[in-house]
Amino acid sequence: MAPVFDPMTGSVLVSDGWGTPFASLSLRRLSLSDGEVTGTARVRSAVYSTALSPSSESLLIASGKRLLELERATLREIRRWDKGVPQYAHHSVRIGELAVCMSSRGPTVGLFNLDDGSCRRKTVGSCQGLYRHDARSALICSGSEGVVAMLDAAKVTLTTIAAPGPFIHAAYADQAAVVLLGLGVPFDVTSQSVTHNRMSGRLAFVRAQPGAKVVAMDAPVPFSWLSLSPDGRQLVLADGQDVYVCTCDGTSVDVAAQHKLPASLEVALVVHDRELLIAIDTQSKQGAVSAWRIGLQRSPSLSWLTSA
Questions:
Q1: Distance (Å, rounded) from C-alpha 288 to C-alpha 305?
Q2: Neighbour tally for 38: CB within 10 Å
Q3: pLDDT per position as a tens digit, 36-56
Q4: Which CATH number do you get for residue 81?
Q5: Is 27 strand, coil or helix?
Q6: Is the sign of the CA dihedral 35, 40, 46, 49 positive or negative?
Q7: Which of 92, 87, 85 is nearest to 119 (CA)?
Q8: Distances from the Cα of 207 to the Cαs of 64, 251, 289, in angstroms?
Q9: Would you say residue 60 lies in a domain?
Q10: Band of residue 72 on the pLDDT scale cut at 50, 70, 90
Q11: Tally of structural domains, the chain
Q12: Is the peptide bond before 222 cis (omega within 30 degrees of 0)?
């Protein structure tokens, strides 16, 4: 699971990865100010995704073959579901008492009822992004199919918003209701192998409404990772240690600052309004997570470093 920012607690949620004994696998909460661990939930299996709701005092985590609800302030377990849940949900959102879950490869979206344990499913395709749009709907970005669709959670119906063609990356600016896509073929499939592509050089902006116009353009730099601010006005593109802070208005993208991270670090999360970048040390056996101050004028500076 990629790190997740929780604005309600001002913290970052990270999960244990490879090399950790299953009995010790946990979800940890790190303070955004100093990186201190302020909470731990012993999950004992890999965490695939986390679902935060703007007004909820709890959060959901999808852990392989189960769902858990945790108290947001303490990470204390409130409820768990072990039967009938959508499995290996790399993407999840909560809409009321429904947990909407998808694997990256799909092909179905599962709507699990937290009250009665029932689950409805609908065939969609692949999933490069799943985002809560409002109190009754979610956006599903299917990169292999090249489609952005709106899911009505109550009716379990899909409405295609746009079909920009295949894309590798997706991000959603919830305040601006804008989807940003990194165009390209996400998978190369042969009779002997499947290759996951990460590099893109084209961007497409799509408004989250039926019949939306697709605004496509060349990216200012090639990238393998992207993050869009909630208001849709700042875009961060990255490839390895190269990080580009860009301004955007939905019709153009311009590089405002370029940063270089130390070797072995890769961007995992950007908290835009704090000008904070969370990086993972890909060569660390201790799960080193660091936070870096980034801005339009200055070079990146280390804010904190911790072994999660």
A1: 7
A2: 17
A3: 999 999 998 889 999 998 878
A4: 2.40.128.630
A5: strand
A6: negative
A7: 85
A8: 32, 12, 34
A9: yes
A10: very high
A11: 1
A12: no
Instruction: Let me know if residue 221 belongs to a domain.
Output: no
- Sequence-ordered list of residues with C-beta below 8 angstroms from that of 134, at least 6 positions apart, any chain: none
282 domain-assigned: no
The arrangement of strands across the sheet holding 242-248 comes to: 225-228, 234-239, 242-248, 253-260
Alpha-carbon distance of 263 to 169, in angstroms, equals: 24
Name the amino acid, one letter, at 293: R
Q: Pick 119 or 24 by higher pLDDT.
A: 119
> Highest mean pLDDT: which of 20-29, 91-100, 195-204?
91-100
Instruction: Compute the distance between CA of residue 137 and CA of residue 158 in angstroms, rounded to an integer.
Output: 10
Q: Which domain holds residue 32?
A: 1-123
Conformational region of residue 88, where left means phi above 0, alpha means psi within -120 to 50, and beta covers everything else: left
3-state secondary structure of 70: strand
* Residues shown for the chain: 308
Q: Which two tokens stand for residue 80?
A: 């768990």
Q: Is 130 part of a structural domain of the chain?
A: no
The Cα–Cα gap between 291 and 30 comes to 11
Q: Are 98 and 105 in contact (CB under 8 A)?
A: no
Distances (CA, A) of 287 to 18, 22, 46, 90, 169: 9, 15, 14, 20, 25
User: Per-residue pLDDT tens for 77-110?
Assistant: 999 999 999 999 999 999 999 999 999 999 999 9
* Residues 113, 177: Cα–Cα separation, whole Å: 26
**Of the candidates 113, 149, 110, the residue with the CA atom closest to the CA atom of residue 128:** 149
Instruction: Provide the edge-to-edge strand list for the sheet that holds 288-293.
Output: 265-271, 276-281, 288-293, 301-307
- Cα distances from 289 to residues 36, 56, 59, 272, in angstroms, run 11, 27, 22, 18
Q: Give 162 or 298, the one with higher predicted confidence.
A: 162
